[in-house]
User: What shape does this take?
Amino acid sequence: MEPERAPLGKVFNVPFLSLDGTSIEMATLLFLFIIVLAISVVEKRRQMVRRIVQVASFLVFYFVVYSCLGVFGMIRNGLYGLTLLGTAYSESFYWLALPVVIIAVTLLHGPVFCGWICPTGSMQDLSGWLHKRFQLVDTTKVRRHLLLFSLSSGVFISFLIWVGRKKRLFVEDSSLHWSAMLLMICIMVLAKYIDDKPSRKLRLFSLLAIVFTAVSHMVVTSPVHFAFTSRDDPASAITTLVILIAGLFVMRSWCRYLCPWGYLMGIMHRFSRLKILKIGGQCDSCGHCNAVCDVDAIDNGKIDVASCQFCYKCVDKCPKNGLQVVDTWKIEKVSPLPRRLIQK
Amino acid sequence: MKSRVRSLPLLVLAGFISQPRIGHAECTLWSQSRCDESNGAAIDLKGKAKADFRPWSFEGSGRVWGYEPGLTTWTSPAIAMVDDEPIVFVGSYDHAVYALNAFSGAERWKFNTGDTIHSAPVIYRNQNEHIVYVASNDRSIYAIDAKYGRQKWVYTVESFRPSIGGSRLASPCVGNLDKGDPILVVPYWVWDRSVSNGKQKSAVVALTIDGGAKVWETEVSDGELTAAVFSKIQGTGMLFLGSNSGNVIALRANDGAVVWKRTELDAVRSPPAIVHAQGKDLAITASKYGLIRSVDALTGKENWSHQAGDRITGSPSILGRKAYVGSYDRNVYGIEIATGLAKEKLSAHSGIYSSLSVIPEIGLVLFMAWDDMLHIRGVGDRPYDIATYTGKPLWNVAGMDDSNWSSPIAAKLGDRWLAFVGSYDGKFRAISLEHRDRELPKGPSNFWFWLSFPMLLGPFFLLARLITKNARARAKRNGETTLS
Assistant: This one.
């Protein structure tokens, strides 16, 4: 009787259609944050809970979220909400609410959005698991990686040509540019033509590009955006696929080199209340934390706050309990001395 | 085997007879918001052929009062032949109704009302005189002489008081009482923002065509109402309308009594289409939930439903054996009225927000989409696909789903089919649907998109290399060994 429905994967989102334009997205993400904040203090099986939260957040993004809440969309929405301040307060609140909540939580609790909730990050964790499972980390097999990667790039270009023949591509499909940049940067890193750590500054370039497009009233759809809506968005789907493939070779490569929201989170993390710090003298530089960190944000207990995603893996895996989450605001308040002592 | 072959013509004949007979009256006078009960929004004016047609646009007063949510820049137009001159009537955000020569775009007259006009005008021929009826958000319904733009009468649905918050008057509709007397029906929604007397009022009022005297008024306790559609259902005049609260309401035209009311899952933003098929009278409704439903026009009982991929804000339109409706999921669905099966799907680049105009004579559908284009597509096997750019919105803040912006209409003048549409860039446009009047559209080109790849990747490559080079130099200066 009703042969042409929404795609099968979206079949459960029909009841949520009418919630579009309401604050349901805000409510569900706040709920996720509350779960994360509550669970992060419980050390037992924290990583298992993190996986559950990641799956739940992906489902929320897939079925409940309809606004452009991708990594690009949140920046664009935030800027748009700012322009409405003073004229349309309720609308301004609607657009600003999510970016403001995520920034506020980051200031209070570190960038848990990146490590626990972000759907792009969750997908890359899946690639990361495959990366480790098939031992793609073996740095001696660089040539094999490059070959595989070149093949992936070939598939990407073929996809691009196929889509370009089928449809007219607009500015909104420019996430394809980001996928091309990601492929290029991963190949360059694997070939050791550029270095991993300094290249993370490229996220600023990505952020500026998104801000530029937003103030120019151009809309660039984010990766994973195709999953939020039931609209046909092959550019976003291809970019998501590229992120997944790139994650097989360089773990969380999108977060490392191109995520504009991740760059903002890194800045916020510098001022955040909670930070992961080396406690006392327990750390014997065994390198366990280096091995578990997906974004290489730690070097024998010394954390790069601009890259850390607050996944707690290093804290949970440290055999000496040398790393702990510390309330830095509290320490400052009591006396500046203990903090310096702790950092030693 | 032989008997089977013999019975084949009989089977074919039986199949032909059993096909649903679907009919609706051809629109001859624009007396309803989308011309007639089938929401076809296309009319053959049977005028004389003119010289070459040139597309035109009209900007009105050009005054922009400012953005407000739900704003409609231009209303959907109405068109009629007045004293051998094709005149298109259209209401505007600048509070005025304009009468324009449909062939040249020349302004015949302008009539100012007290507030913005969101709803389509309608036309009625009273003896030898054409009268235009328009509902303005100043809570008044105006009857205007179509030839000279003079006011015949005015009726105010709610008198002014300082605490009046605002109003939305839907498009009028001409119907008949049981005795045959014509009436003008206007659904409206008025709200009062005073603390002591805060209220909303949703009602449908019926007025006499000649003098604007009230015949009946029915409060429906609802939100913003759509235009009403009048149709004779088994000899009884009935009115069908939707509401922003998600109700589809059927009223008896004779006394305004509510015959049935059914609740949809989301807002109903445009009136239903009425079709008479297989001895049944059906109302085809569509809601923002994306559900297209066929209900019995007499009882409101569901016949079938079809779920589109996204919300629907326009009206369904009847063309042949199918009901066509556009959705935000970028498709126009051609749904078989008898079965509810989506037999046809026309895809656009962008979500479709408008009601459709359907032209049975040449098998075309017209609709507006979020790519800022008027799309003209052939149905069935007709190879016709034109999209005309109609400009960017005047207000950046106006987003999807914010407004029910203007829907296109079509009219045949001489031997030409023309399309008229008020675009949200502040202009009202007329274009020809004839190939001889327009160049064939060029195929899509992605040249600039492809070119942008090397233009972006080149500097990005250099930047990445520069950052690493600087970092390596710094590390060398500081005596560090590794960076990556």
